[in-house]
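$ ./design --mode recover --in tokens.txt
reading tokens...
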């Protein structure tokens, strides 16, 4: 249906956990120009060390992606993706997360001193060397506390709005009430620390859960455990974010691919 992407989760060292939610080694395998490469909606900002054949790695930051993108078949490429925790974007990169939505920019072009230093430290590393170097240098570039009370509040809200085993995500109004903040305050927290509104974050997270569990559950059950009112609401959200309804996506009837724009020229 699409070009396959193999992913392998790497252990996140304890000293990085205040700032990083996960690290993954990825590779595009068997690239076929006749098949699209799918980038899923993703609410997370990532630092990417990308390697193509020989030469210096490319160091990028990929902001939240609000809808799926379908690209023409890619060459074989490997990379390490470092997923930043909610609230970690401004301390590391020097900009609020909302400024990176839909963008891919060079790590060294961002204004944060830690970002520039990190670009210097990683500039000649192979993807498999990234984790150890991050553990060596990143804690010294960032404050020891991961953002204080506002960040803790943001992360509690992200958790409450996320699909996970045994937990059906709440609605934005309910989560704001439980955390004793207004919906406006919650939106401001998300704009700064995640880049999306709480509602859009929740929609992306639910659709990603549908994609992850579509082969395990019947549609009605899948809608229920991911927090949708019913199956039709799930289908509507899926179509909006993925560009096609679930049946079309899983049978390979995808939108026409387009060329991939790697670096944002602003």
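writing sequence...
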């Amino acid at each position: 249906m699409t070009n396959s992407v193999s992913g392998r989760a790497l252990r996140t060292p304890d000293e990085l956990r205040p700032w990083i939610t996960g690290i993954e080694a990825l590779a595009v395998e068997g690239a076929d120009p006749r098949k699209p490469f799918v980038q899923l909606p993703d609410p997370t900002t990532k630092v990417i060390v990308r390697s193509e054949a020989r030469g210096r790695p490319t160091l990028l930051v990929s902001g939240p992606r609000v809808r799926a993108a379908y690209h023409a078949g890619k060459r074989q490429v490997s990379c390490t993706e470092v997923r930043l925790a909610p609230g970690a974007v401004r301390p590391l990169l020097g900009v609020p997360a909302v400024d990176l939505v839909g963008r891919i920019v060079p790590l060294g072009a961002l204004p944060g001193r830690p970002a520039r230093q990190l670009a210097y430290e990683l500039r000649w590393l192979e993807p498999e060397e990234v984790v150890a170097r991050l553990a060596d240098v990143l804690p010294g570039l960032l404050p020891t506390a991961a953002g204080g009370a506002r960040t803790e509040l943001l992360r509690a809200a992200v958790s409450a709005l996320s699909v996970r085993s045994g937990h059906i995500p709440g609605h934005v109004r309910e989560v704001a009430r439980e955390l004793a903040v207004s919906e406006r305050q919650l939106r401001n927290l998300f704009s700064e620390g995640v880049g999306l509104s709480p509602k859009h974050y929740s929609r992306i997270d639910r659709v990603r859960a549908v994609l992850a569990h579509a082969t395990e559950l019947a549609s009605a059950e899948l809608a229920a455990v991911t927090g949708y009112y019913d199956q039709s609401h799930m289908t509507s959200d899926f179509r909006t974010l993925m560009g096609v309804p679930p049946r079309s996506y899983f049978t390979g009837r995808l939108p026409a691919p387009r060329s991939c724009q790697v670096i944002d020229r602003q």
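exit 0
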